[in-house]
Design brief:
about 5% strand; three-stranded antiparallel β-sheet
Length: about 150
């Protein structure tokens, strides 16, 4: 099995951040919060229930590693060409899958463009995925641009 690219870990950490909510917790634990897309989340974007117990940053790293392994497996299942492409391309699409879910990748035009190795068209498709809760989210715009950079610079 291919390892999760460190670039994918870096992207996820950069754009998810380790959310300590409430910020006044003296133990510096992360508590569940509702992300901009309306999902209960904890740590580095790990989906959870609203009553999930608070976690440490180390526990957040464990969740992130598990979530990225799941995203990587789905990415390679739906975009097998990425197994032979530069690691940066794999990292870009694995981060997309981690962020939006395997179902979105599976049914997307992005998937078709990646499997055709049409990187400029894949970049255009990535840039379309910037909505959360029906609104363009600046954080998603920045994240997609970081993914596009990795996709086309390889």
């Amino acid at each position: 099995m291919i390892e999760v690219p460190s670039t994918a870990v870096d992207l996820a950490k950069r754009f998810e951040g380790f959310h300590r909510v409430p910020k006044h917790d003296p133990q510096r634990l992360a508590h569940p919060y509702v992300c901009p897309a309306g999902y209960w989340t904890i740590g580095y974007g790990h989906l959870c229930k609203s009553d999930h117990p608070p976690i440490t940053e180390d526990e957040g790293d464990i969740y992130l590693a598990q979530d990225l392994r799941t995203a990587l497996a789905a990415t390679l299942r739906y975009c097998p060409v990425l197994a032979t492409e530069p690691e940066e391309r794999l990292a870009a699409i694995a981060d997309f899958t981690f962020n939006l879910g395997a179902g979105r990748l599976q049914t997307s035009t992005l998937r078709r463009r990646v499997n055709q190795r049409d990187w400029s068209s894949a970049a255009k498709e990535l840039r379309r995925w910037v909505y959360g809760g029906g609104k363009i989210l600046p954080g998603l715009v920045a994240r997609r641009e970081a993914e596009v950079f990795l996709l086309v610079s390889s």
